[in-house]
């Protein structure tokens, strides 16, 4: 009896000790600090203060640049504003800008990837030696890579290089509007439900509402492919076509997105995911607002190249649509499928092969959807 009592007391003491011991929160590192990276830093910086699941200091890796003779990281850490990529918005003071990638990811258990997709391979190689067990990632990057068997998603690149679980977040989210706290929705794709919920806690706000779905590959593919459609929408604007034409581009683009996903995604491809924010909603917003549409409109109106216009119009921001069209075109060529995707193919040929912009409409007129 006495022994039983002693054991009970010991268990009780242990329970009390455990309840008073606070587990340290998970350290977050945001890998990237452009227009979207800075908007997301604003949200994460605020959210971690309200939750004991996360470390209250958020690291943000910044690709160092000089702005009027001052380092961008120094400006962010003293003025709490990314004056180049998100001017006019204060970042929370607990978001710390760090110029060395290896320093920024040290001790981080959650990595948020938000850089233009052309830089991901090199950064992962730099990060790899600093990954510790149990680290998870989420990619906000819109784009695709090209692997030996065809399609390679950016989350696949991160997964393979870092050997961590990776979820994705994509949606109708023009960064400046999210930073302005204008209401919108977004989609997290996560095959691991528990991780999906951690990311939801880290990112949801009253004006940034999140749905978590399992079809992570489809969510990510939508985010990449819609940028190609947006370039087509910009061509139509530049050529002086109206809203009916834009609606047709959006619909035909969506049909090609679904067909592409059915051909190239390994898992299930349900139509429902295309109805989430990452699907039709993102497609609409990108075809009306967004940089891909804007630059494509200027391309149709001037004789300047995409590279020239990107440099002239975007102040260091990167275009995703033309490059994604090139990656998709290579994949289609390999599988002898170019003729089944005339909209995707025309965007590539106009951006890179000298096809005339007005030919874009000819491609739509002969689309297999109407045959
Ligand atoms: N901006 C948006 O509205 C938006 C919304 C949703 C998703 N996204 C996606 O988020 C990702 C990041 O976009 P963004 O808008 O934050 O970036 P951005 O285009 O605004 O900025 C470019 C970023 O690239 C960095 N950079 C430049 N040269 C580099 C190099 N050599 N190596 C590494 N980094 C370099 C710059 O410092 C800057 O942070 C993209 O995949 C984009 O499609 C953007």
TrEMBL record:
Keywords: Cytoplasm, NAD, Oxidoreductase. Pfam families: NAD_Gly3P_dh_C, NAD_Gly3P_dh_N. Substrate binds at residues 142, 291-292. One of its GO terms (cellular component) is cytosol. It is an enzyme of class 1 (oxidoreductase). Residues 219-361 form the Glycerol-3-phosphate dehydrogenase NAD-dependent C-terminal domain. One of its GO terms (biological process) is carbohydrate metabolic process. Its EC number is 1.1.1.8. NAD(+) binds at residues 32-37, 119, 175, 291, 318, 320. GO terms for molecular function: glycerol-3-phosphate dehydrogenase (NAD+) activity; NAD binding; protein homodimerization activity. The active site is at residue 226. Residues 27-194 form the Glycerol-3-phosphate dehydrogenase NAD-dependent N-terminal domain. It comes from the Eukaryota. Its main location: cytoplasm. InterPro entries: 6-PGluconate_DH-like_C_sf, 6PGD_dom2, G3P_DH_NAD-dep, G3P_DH_NAD-dep_C, G3P_DH_NAD-dep_euk, G3P_DH_NAD-dep_N, NAD(P)-bd_dom_sf. It catalyses: sn-glycerol 3-phosphate + NAD(+) = dihydroxyacetone phosphate + NADH + H(+). It is found in: Cytoplasm. Belongs to the NAD-dependent glycerol-3-phosphate dehydrogenase family. This is Glycerol-3-phosphate dehydrogenase [NAD(+)]. It comes from Scomber scombrus.
